[in-house]
Amino acid sequence: DNKRVTLVLVDTCAYRDANSDFPGIFKQLLPAFFSASKEKGILLLTHPILENEILKHIEDSGLYKNYNSLGNSLRKCGETLKYLGCFDEDLFSRIGNIDIRSELFDSFKHHYQDAIILGYGDPATVFSQYFKGEAPFAETGDKKSEFPDAFVIDATKKYLAEHPNDILLVVSKDGDWKSSFEEMDNVVKCDSVED
Fold first, then answer.
1. What is the pLDDT of residues 140-188, one digit of tens each?
2. Which phi and psi (to 5°) does residue 113 adopt?
3. Which residues fall within 8 angstroms of residue 63, CB to CB, at 6 or more apart?
4. What angle do CA 100, 103, 107 make, to 5 degrees?
5. Whose CA, among 3, 54, 83, 110, lies 20 to 30 Å from 29?
6. Whether 158 contacts 119, CB under 8 Å
7. Within a 10 A sphere around the Cβ of 119, how many other Cβ atoms?
8. Which are the contacts of 149, defined by CB distance < 8 A and separation ≥ 6?
């Protein structure tokens, strides 16, 4: 169909799969995604729950872990490096003073500076879905872990109800997310930011 996407909501697992590389240190995938969205006039949707999940994904990313590992290794090898004549006090100090978690999160926030921040959704609706086993609450597995997604999805649906002319692109490979938006005509779904 000829519907033009006007909004995009990205499940944080898509960012996790891209190693939370918001600045494009190793791959320009995320900066290119944000740039293309902006060029096409597509607005980003966000939610405080998603932002907390982003912080967790950053801490689990290779970028974060590798940088922290570098700092630990430099501290352990400091005396050896001094002995070998390749100890750079200024460089070591700069490396030690950088908070890579904040740097990566600031890059994320920069991309989302014009994003629409969704409200929290309706607890009564979310709990009703939980007890009925409706998406995003799968019939099997740990249903309680789906509460963050349920509040984001409910807030998104409420936003779309208030803005019926918008077309939302949902980026998620999570089947529960896809099921949650299945009945909505103004939602398009894809698996990753590469699609």
1. 656 777 888 999 999 999 999 999 999 999 999 988 888 899 889 999 9
2. -60, -25
3. 19, 20, 21, 25, 26, 100, 104
4. 140
5. 3
6. yes
7. 12
8. 11, 136, 174, 176, 177, 180
Distance (Å, rounded) from C-alpha 155 to C-alpha 161?
10
Continuous segment of H or E residues that includes residue 28: none
Q: Is the pTM of this model over 0.90?
A: no
The alpha carbon of residue 21 and the mean position of all alpha carbons in its chain are separated, in whole angstroms, by 10
Span 9-22, pLDDT tens digits: 999 999 999 999 99
Distance CA 174, CA 188 (A): 14
Cβ contacts of residue 116 below 8 Å, gap of 6+?
7, 43, 44, 45, 46, 159
For 18, 40, 84, 174, the CA distances from 181, given in Å and listed in that order, are 24, 23, 60, 11
Angle at 162 between CA 45 and CA 9, to 5 degrees: 20
The one-character DSSP state at 25 is S
In whole angstroms, what is the distance from residue 147 CA to residue 140 CA?
Answer: 14
